[in-house]
Amino acid sequence: MTTALTRNQTLLFVAMGCVFIVLRAMSVEGLLPVLLKPLPILLLAWVAWRNLRGRLRAGITAALLFSALGDVLLALQFPGQFVSGLGAFLIAQLIYTYNFLREAEWRAGIFSRRIAPLIAAAVALAVIILPLAAGMQAPVAVYLCAITAMAVCAAAVSPPSGVLFAGALAFMLSDSLIAINKFVQPFVGSDVAIMVTYYLAQLLIVSGLLRRQAAQQAGSTQE
After folding, report:
1. 49-79 pLDDT, tens per residue?
2. Structural domain range at position 199
3. Residue 16 resides in a domain
4. What is the Cα–Cα distance from 17 to 5, expressed in whole angstroms?
5. pLDDT over threshold 80, residue 222
6. Residue 88 lies in a domain
7. What's the number of domains the chain is made of?
8. CA dihedral (66, 170, 175, 126) positive or negative
């Protein structure tokens, strides 16, 4: 068991992510990008399964596997592609939310510093995006609620983890960029920005949980 991703695991994660992002930036089509896109997330799922302990182990691994499924679905071209990918990520967010909620401790200070600004940002995003989401207001609204709940519960996890919370924020940012690019205004470099923030989010979530676990174990040993 390790307390964080090893140097080699981190380098492999970054290398695989960079290869996919470069291919995406070059508009490379075909099977290769589809196969490469989920590999960094599958690596994190393997790390989580091997190293996390207790009730978080299966949950976080499952969330990562559903994320990898969403990656594949969004990379393919077929009718209903976006809704299918959104559904897989919705399941991932619900699993994250459930697992973070079980580790949460609700305190007034956390709400005022972290949770209230998160909710305000989510409401602002909904006001901007939902009127422009054509016939997809319902699934987009459900997903927005789910990822906001995930970030809120990550903010309340106790003992707190700044790395985990940063990962949740990065995930919200990545999905916000997707929504803005799809429904509001396409922007140059969107593919790169979305994938960089997405990969970073998942890496920070797993790293934050591993560090938190190590700190808990160190505290138990000292006691």
Report:
1. 999 998 899 999 999 999 999 999 999 989 9
2. 7-216
3. yes
4. 16
5. no
6. yes
7. 1
8. positive
